[in-house]
Amino acid sequence: MEQKPDSSFHKSERLCSKRVIDALFAGGSKSMSAFPLRVVFMPVPVEAPAPPVSVLVSVSKRRFKRAVKRNRVKRQIREAYRKQKHILTSALPTPSGQGLAVAFLWLSDRLYASAEVDDCVKRLLVRISEQLPASPAEHPGNASAL
């Protein structure tokens, strides 16, 4: 029997740690854009029961004054990530203790259709998975591989 990839977005997959968020935006992370989204990501150490990828979604109040519009955009991004996250999780080396912290930032000041947001998130996840090292030995700071 073929096993389907997990297409849910649990609360444990959300990036909530202030320390990790500060490190993500302070430097040492990589970013790329596919308008109307920018993604910022960096490798982080992960414990065994925690999910390998933690995600943050941010829509600026400067872009959308009304919370209804901000919430709609965040819901679209979360849904697009939920449907496409298998691209990223399959690219991560499984036995390593390395995970990924990812932040999606909305750049535009207008609303887009869900299909356009899905396509944008998919392109970004594919580009991130291409930049990930193939083996745990290639991760910087992995002393056990030396």
From TrEMBL:
Q: Which GO terms describe its biological process?
A: tRNA 5'-leader removal
Record EC number: 3.1.26.5
In terms of superkingdom, the source organism counts as: Bacteria
Q: EC class of this enzyme?
A: hydrolase
Check the record and name the InterPro entries matching this protein: Ribosomal_Su5_D2-typ_SF (IPR020568), Ribsml_uS5_D2-typ_fold_subgr (IPR014721), RNase_P (IPR000100), RNase_P_CS (IPR020539)
Q: Which reaction does it catalyse?
A: Endonucleolytic cleavage of RNA, removing 5'-extranucleotides from tRNA precursor
> Does Iron count among this protein's keywords?
no
Keyword annotations for this protein?
A: Endonuclease, Hydrolase, Nuclease, RNA-binding, tRNA processing
One GO molecular-function entry = ribonuclease P activity
For this chain, the family text in UniProt reads: Belongs to the RnpA family.
Q: Which NCBIfam families match?
A: rnpA
HAMAP family noted in UniProt = RNase_P
Q: What does this protein do?
A: RNaseP catalyzes the removal of the 5'-leader sequence from pre-tRNA to produce the mature 5'-terminus. It can also cleave other RNA substrates such as 4.5S RNA. The protein component plays an auxiliary but essential role in vivo by binding to the 5'-leader sequence and broadening the substrate specificity of the ribozyme.
Q: State the protein's name.
A: Ribonuclease P protein component
Per the UniProt entry, what species is this protein from, by scientific name?
Answer: Paraprevotella xylaniphila YIT 11841
